[in-house]
Amino acid sequence: MPHVLVLNASYEPLGVVPLRRALILVLNGKATSLEDSGALMHSATQAIPAPSVVRLKRFVRVPFRGTVPLTRRALFARDGGRCVYCGGVATSVDHVVPRSRGGQHSWDNVVAACRRCNHMKADRHVSELGWRMRHQPAPPTGLAWRIIGTGHRDPRWLPYLRPYGAEEALARIDGRTPA
């Protein structure tokens, strides 16, 4: 099912919801559609363009947001789906300092790795093997990462996410240098 970007009344990105939830917000008059996906949703009496971006009509106060949650999907997005050791396609998660040696499960210690590198590294430190990482792990920052970390992307969302660091985030995901 397609997903829809939800913006606050101030155009600040709030999150991503399923198309059904976005349609309910629009039909109940709680949100307006800013971008259409090009598809039509049919009922018994009418056809409604399916939204891709909606904006709430009333401002929603958002409590303090901590760091971006560490999920497998967000981790692979941060590392561009590539192994930080060899640059191959990443299929697993690796702890730089192994958990068996006191390493934490945190953004600073978790990286995407290919199965081969993860198996060869096992529970050793990178320095013991003489390996180098392509980049140092760090927590992603910016509101755009909350949206991009969900794994749902739509090119129509970019103009609304650009002020919140989407260019840098998407460039990092796609393995390019930011424009």
From TrEMBL:
Molecular-function GO terms, alphabetical: endonuclease activity
Listed SMART domains: HNHc
Pfam family, one: HNH
Classification of source organism: Bacteria, Bacillati, Actinomycetota, Actinomycetes, Kitasatosporales
Protein's recorded name: HNH endonuclease
Domain annotation HNH nuclease: ranges: 70-119
Species name: Streptomyces glaucosporus
UniProt xrefs under CDD domains: HNHc
Key words, A-Z: Endonuclease, Hydrolase, Nuclease
Highest taxon of the lineage: Bacteria
